[in-house]
Write a structure and sequence with these properties.
By secondary structure, the protein is α/β, with parallel strands linked by helices. The chain folds into two domains: 172 residues, NAD(P)-binding Rossmann-like Domain (Rossmann fold, 3-Layer(aba) Sandwich); 162 residues, Dihydrodipicolinate Reductase, domain 2. The protein is 38% helix and 23% strand. It is built from twelve helices and twelve strands. It binds NADP nicotinamide-adenine-dinucleotide phosphate.
């Protein structure tokens, strides 16, 4: 059977966007043979603007252009006075992939683009958390009204399928407690600090590997984990949480001396995100450095690992973890979402 070609818009050509292009480069035959799908980036954008190539950009060439320091504005197909929002419909785009930075103030560029795409019936795959944190209910409603898929498994713990498991595999369960280490930059920093490395050195390594947020204060001050907790609450716990209700404390106040002291007692400090169910069905949401026994599931998640626990009435206690130290698995989660949207 001839594979179906899906013209896509790819917003953001940074660590995740370029990793997504690398997957298209290397996995095109697999995607065509196994799933009958060809994802063709026709509309691409970075901070310099947008370019349109109706016959599709060659993923390897585009990735190499960006890796060499090139901008979208340098491409022959650059459209100086155009915007992605305007071009979404006229270009024939059938999928929006958002790998642009988190902006919790305005939601730009991701939120208006997701709104526009869903209103046009164009499915969206998001790695960017901001649109969901700012407008989860609205986007879900738009997706339903316009029968457009909305998938975001890449937004929580990279490629660990927290959202998928929560939505698909806990049917009928009541989750009394969800908790996890949702941010690998801080987990890596804390582990390295216990091994004697400085906070600054460890953060620099996370940035070099493309794991840290573009604005790393989101990681170290706990907001990235809080964003993920809000998404889990809305998408999995059925609780319409807002970021303002999460109690948030980051890791910037922790000292190596403090970490040393605890390790002598068989404990570790982790930046723990938790959602604890209250009697009335709402959840108490918190992100805070928390002492855990070293030999507990989350206490044992070290370095580049992230992990989550679901405690529920029907499914016992579920424990899941992942090790990832570059953005490729997150890009792969976008791919899995895109394929699943089409299969669905
Ligand atoms: N890195 C990870 O491991 C990871 C894991 C899970 C989720 N995420 C999420 O994935 C998203 C991308 O992360 P990243 O690490 O790839 O970030 P990044 O390396 O900073 O890349 C961001 C990309 O977005 C572009 N951009 C900035 N403003 C834009 C605008 N107004 N319109 C269009 N594009 C714009 C940037 O353009 P320039 O190239 O011109 O700077 C860059 O190409 C973020 O929302 C992040 O939270 C990342």
């Amino acid at each position: 059977m001839e594979p179906i070609t899906i013209p896509c818009a790819l917003i953001g050509l940074g660590h995740v966007g370029r990793s997504f292009l690398r997957i298209l480069e290397t996995k095109a035959p697999v995607l065509a043979a196994r799933y009958g799908l060809v994802f063709l980036p026709i509309l691409v954008a970075d901070s310099s603007g947008v370019a349109l190539r109706p016959q599709g950009f060659e993923p390897g060439t585009l990735r190499a252009h960006k890796e060499a320091g090139g901008r979208v504005a340098d491409l022959a197909e650059y459209l100086p006075n155009a915007s992605v929002a305007e071009l979404l419909e006229s270009s024939g785009c059938r999928l929006l992939l958002d790998a642009s930075p988190v902006n919790l103030e305005t939601g730009e560029p991701g939120l208006p683009l997701a709104r526009r795409a869903l209103s046009l019936g164009i499915p969206c795959v998001l790695a960017n958390k901001a649109p969901l944190v700012l407008a989860f209910q609205e986007l879900e409603q738009l997706a339903q009204e316009h029968a457009a898929g909305l998938a975001f498994s890449a937004t929580v713990c990279g490629a660990l399928p927290v959202i998928n498991i929560g939505q698909r595999d806990l049917i009928g369960g009541e989750i009394a407690l969800f908790q996890g280490i949702l941010n690998s930059t801080t987990n890596f920093i804390l582990t390295e600090m216990t091994l004697g490395r400085s906070y600054a050195e460890a953060l620099a390594e996370a940035q070099r590997r493309g794991i840290a947020e573009a604005d790393p204060t989101l990681d170290v001050e706990g907001w990235d984990a809080a964003n993920k907790l809000v998404i889990v609450a809305n998408a999995v716990l059925g609780y319409p949480a807002r970021l303002e209700e999460v109690s948030v404390e980051g890791i910037t106040g922790l000292t190596p001396e403090h970490l040393d002291l605890l390790s002598g007692e068989g404990k570790v400090i982790k930046l723990l995100a938790s959602a604890q169910r209250r009697e009335d069905g709402s959840y108490r949401l918190q992100v805070a450095p928390t002492e855990l026994p070293l030999f507990s599931f989350l206490g044992g998640c070290a370095g580049w690992e992230m992990g989550v626990e679901f405690h529920s009435d029907l499914y016992g206690r579920m424990y899941h973890k992942i090790w990832e130290r570059d953005p490729l698995p997150t890009a792969a989660a976008m791919l899995r979402d895109a394929v699943n949207l089409w299969r669905g």
